[in-house]
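Weekly structure sync, notes
Attendees: PL (lead), two postdocs, one rotation student
Agenda item 3: pending single-chain targets
PL asked that the sequence for the first pending target be pasted directly into the notes so everyone works from the same version. It is reproduced below exactly as submitted, 192 residues in total.
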Amino acid sequence: MLIAFSSPVRTQDVTNDPGSSGTSTVLTELQGGNWVLTGVESKAYNGVNVTKWNTVGAELTGLCSWKDVLTIEHTVVSSFKWQDPPKTMQPGSYLNLEVVYTNVDYSTTANINTGVKIFFERVGASYLTMGTSSVEVLKLNKDNKQYTNEVKKGFFYAPKTLFDETKDCQLIVDCYVGKDHYVTTYTYSYQP
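Predicted structure, written out during the meeting:
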């Protein structure tokens, strides 16, 4: 038996301006070469350890469920799917990535933030906050007031400078439900 649910889907575009990074250091712009994908890693960081993460193919689902002091059960279930990033990118090339957010269940009046953020950063940077040299791809945040399904496309310029002396950078995809995060990190190496 196949059951299909139809939900309103909203499409939205975002663009980052490479001229507004706010960095105070002067970085040399890369000439030629490519950023080449060298590794992919996924890991759950469960801050309050109430979310169960499940991946099926290219789709990730986070199930957050808890009981309050009155033993009322609260549930937030969010599904995330994102387009695979490119295997190679020329520095400064204009690209985009698409994310599909699906609200499976939001059965609570508590304000539980759920969503995804994608950005480029130096290797080893925190997934929680973007630094001054980060290149934002997109942010999508939902809460108890607005949790409709959404397709969001983020437009960005591939990094034009090195983040540090390693010639590596990471594209961080941070999916979260409350304080629990599931982070997929794509490592790129600059090859002149």
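Discussion points:
- The two ends are 54 Å apart (CA to CA).
- DSSP finds no helices and twelve strands in the chain.
Action: rotation student to compare against the earlier draft before next sync.
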